[in-house]
């Protein structure tokens, strides 16, 4: 099976040996997205809600590039620097999904994240 590298200007460019996303068969795997504005390259700072919104918009940019929506997402992984922020992150995250068809998910508190952000999210989606 071949893998196809996905690149879009609607998500931050990779700054290392990784791709924004990879398609294998009918599955899309995204790299973890943090709150970097793809247009300016600047980190979005402010509230955890603003960070989460930028992260979800970056994911949307990747999904758009391959012609799918959040309805195609089957699994998400959320990494938080502080689990006490979970409710705020979950509120923003929840606006992107239909509760009845929401994907499987794990949420993990970690010691640090790239650029010392507060949240990083990756997704796996089915291409249809």
TrEMBL record:
GO terms for molecular function: deaminase activity. Transmembrane segments: none annotated. The lineage of its organism: Bacteria, Pseudomonadati, Bacteroidota, Flavobacteriia, Flavobacteriales. This is Reactive intermediate/imine deaminase. One of its GO terms (cellular component) is cytosol. The gene is yjgF. Belongs to the RutC family.
């Amino acid at each position: 099976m071949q893998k196809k590298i996905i690149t879009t200007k609607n998500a931050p460019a990779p700054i290392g040996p990784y791709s924004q996303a990879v398609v294998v068969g009918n599955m899309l795997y995204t790299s973890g997205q943090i709150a970097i504005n793809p247009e300016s390259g600047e980190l979005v700072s402010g509230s955890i809600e603003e960070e989460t919104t930028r992260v979800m918009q970056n994911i949307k940019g990747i999904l758009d590039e391959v012609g799918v929506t959040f309805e195609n997402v089957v699994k998400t992984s959320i990494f938080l620097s502080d689990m006490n922020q979970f409710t705020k992150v979950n509120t923003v995250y929840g606006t992107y999904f239909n509760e009845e068809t929401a994907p499987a998910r794990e949420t993990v508190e970690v010691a640090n994240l790239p650029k010392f952000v507060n949240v990083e999210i990756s997704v796996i989606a089915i291409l249809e």
